[in-house]
Design a protein that fits this description.
The protein is an alpha+beta fold and 149 residues long. It contains five helices and five strands, in the order αβββααββαα. The radius of gyration is 30 Å and the shape is elongated. The chain starts with a helix and ends in a 10-residue tail after the last helix.
């Protein structure tokens, strides 16, 4: 079983951040004819329907032949086979090698703080909404009066 795991006979994890981690076959139940075989990734700790195994063979293969606990027993026995994800994984999105920056939700996004007003009519409308107060008066902190007893 360990040799087949190292060779990747049961396939690799389809997630991009798992970096083609080899997977182990596993069943969802120990009862016969309740579910077909699945594969387990130790890096993302998810079970998937096997895509790389022969489809006809994996459909006929019952998950109870492996059992629900084989993956956990396998990785308890072969602890060197476990590849843990890095604690901090910095993913930099790129398109054709160029960094994607300035998009909303990105750490590089800096929202505009100033209001762009194109015409004097828009400026008059903004001033009317502010109640005729200047920008300096709006930016000053509000002064509260102490409560009287």
């Amino acid at each position: 079983m360990y040799g087949k795991f190292l060779q990747g006979v049961y396939g690799q994890c389809p997630r991009a951040l798992c970096n083609n981690q080899n997977m182990v076959p596993c069943g969802m139940s120990d009862k016969l004819r309740s579910s077909r075989v699945k594969v387990y990734c130790c890096k993302c700790e998810e079970m998937y329907i096997p895509a790389e195994m022969n489809q006809q063979r994996s459909n006929a293969l019952d998950g109870a032949y492996f059992g629900a606990s084989i993956a956990h027993n396998f990785f308890a026995t072969y602890q060197k086979a476990i590849t843990l994800p890095p604690k901090v994984y910095f993913y930099q999105p790129t398109i054709f090698g160029f960094k994607v920056a300035g998009k909303v939700g990105s750490k590089y996004h800096q929202p505009r703080k100033d209001v762009v007003i194109n015409t004097q009519e828009e400026q008059a409308l903004v001033n009317a909404k502010m109640g005729g107060k200047s920008e300096k008066e709006l930016e000053s902190p509000i002064k509260l009066k102490p409560a009287s007893r």
